[in-house]
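Tokens as discussed.
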């Protein structure tokens, strides 16, 4: 979870993630973790800036051969 997603937006000052969306996200992550667990896998959940968290995970795991990500599309006004 990127803390920057839970503060005001750049243009309007509204929260990017309100309480209802946050609840939905938390429930979705919990459900995904449970589904993966039933299939013999797991889900790593971290809080922090992705650029820091991913770097730290790669260092901890040590044998990472690829990293795949997507960038949030930002609307230009």
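Sequence:
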């Amino acid at each position: 979870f990127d803390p920057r997603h839970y503060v005001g937006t750049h243009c309007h000052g509204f929260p990017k993630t309100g309480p209802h969306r946050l609840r939905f996200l938390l429930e979705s992550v919990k459900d995904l973790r449970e589904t993966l667990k039933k299939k013999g896998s797991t889900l790593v959940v971290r809080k922090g800036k992705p650029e820091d968290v991913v770097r730290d995970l790669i260092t901890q795991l040590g044998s990472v051969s690829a990293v795949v990500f997507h960038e949030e599309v930002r609307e230009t006004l």
